Amino acid sequence: MSRMVTIISTMETQVSNGPSGTSLPNGPVISTNGATDDSKTNLIVNYLPQNMTQEEFKSLFGSIGEIESCKLVRDKITGIHDASAGQSLGYGFVNYVDPNDADKAINTLNGLKLQTKTIKVSYARPSSASIRDANLYVSGLPKTMTQKDMEQLFSQYGRIITSRILVDQVTAGISRGVGFIRFDKRNEAEEAIKGLNGQKPLGAAEPITVKFANNPSQKTGQALLTQLYQTAARRYTGPLHHQTQRFSLIPPFGKGPDPNNSTKPILDNLLNASYGVKRFSPITIDSMTSLAGVNLTGPTGAGWCIFVYNLSPEADESVLWQLFGPFGAVTNVKVIRDFTTNKCKGFGFVTMTNYDEAAMAIASLNGYRLGDRVLQVSFKTSKQHKA
DNA sequence: TCATATT
């Protein structure tokens, strides 16, 4: 019965690290809200992979700079055993100590491909009731109408935060005639409904329907259970139809969901040489595991540790996220640096949760040409001898 | 008849 499961809105607080250098006796401290002014330290991150955890989220954004607080937003579910582990809503917030790091995070991580998603990193608007429930569902759109056309139609009612037209999965690219428009303010959305619901767009045969979109946090119990089932099932079978997408390296920047969000891909120089080039190493997984240092670091606690060799002195953590993120769940990355120069010593480590994803990343990235360097990628062994 | 953007 769907009424056995009720959803309450989330009012979680953001987990804080506390002031730097201060040790916290009882684990994470609960801060008051993140920045509520339009400070340049607080970011919103959208389109995160469903299975990304708070820890991975923090690890990813912590690689940019010191984090004041961060939070992966989740559903709070009552009526189900163990309500503490709510489903990720696919977005989160990061508040940096230094505004420069927030800027750097946008430039570096916006557009990053993680599994099947392309994440979006942008400044969070000041939290306010007026910006909530400003999302519209539009149906009956002419199949020829583009996202741009739709935005043009709706922009007369206010500032559009994001828009999307759903497309057919199989015939990839053909409009399903339905879409979403998120306005900056709820009252703008209300005006758009009044002005456009039941109206025919210039020259269209049929009128469109404009209404508020379903709120994800008030989904029915049934819908949530099927979603839980589907995400659970996917863990075992793997997202088969996404394989080609997962294992190709394509430019992560420039085609974000929001064209208004400018990206300055500072990693372009690092990744340019490899754009569009699929490089699959001929070395098989089996042959790799039987290579010299047989003592693989097993799935000890965190996951599978991967050794990455021949990184440039300028390499940073975000490069490793760029490279490995598309292959599956990455829990941690680390670039080994010289203590005095702070330059990369030529290698680093990546931890991945699942063996098959780690193996696929290795098979694809070992021998991968990054700029003018050829990477050596393998499972970490207990001893990395020098050749 | 709807993918997941405001703590």
TrEMBL record:
<dbReference type="InterPro" id="IPR034915">
    <property type="entry name" value="HuC_RRM3"/>
</dbReference>
<feature type="domain" description="RRM">
    <location>
        <begin position="41"/>
        <end position="126"/>
    </location>
</feature>
<dbReference type="InterPro" id="IPR012677">
    <property type="entry name" value="Nucleotide-bd_a/b_plait_sf"/>
</dbReference>
<feature type="domain" description="RRM">
    <location>
        <begin position="304"/>
        <end position="382"/>
    </location>
</feature>
<dbReference type="InterPro" id="IPR035979">
    <property type="entry name" value="RBD_domain_sf"/>
</dbReference>
<keyword id="KW-0694">RNA-binding</keyword>
<dbReference type="InterPro" id="IPR006548">
    <property type="entry name" value="ELAD_HU_SF"/>
</dbReference>
<dbReference type="GO" id="GO:1990904">
    <property type="term" value="C:ribonucleoprotein complex"/>
</dbReference>
<comment type="similarity">
    <text>Belongs to the RRM elav family.</text>
</comment>
<dbReference type="GO" id="GO:0003723">
    <property type="term" value="F:RNA binding"/>
</dbReference>
<dbReference type="InterPro" id="IPR002343">
    <property type="entry name" value="Hud_Sxl_RNA"/>
</dbReference>
<protein>
    <recommendedName>
        <fullName>ELAV-like protein</fullName>
    </recommendedName>
</protein>
<dbReference type="Pfam" id="PF00076">
    <property type="entry name" value="RRM_1"/>
</dbReference>
<dbReference type="InterPro" id="IPR000504">
    <property type="entry name" value="RRM_dom"/>
</dbReference>
<feature type="domain" description="RRM">
    <location>
        <begin position="134"/>
        <end position="215"/>
    </location>
</feature>
<keyword id="KW-0677">Repeat</keyword>
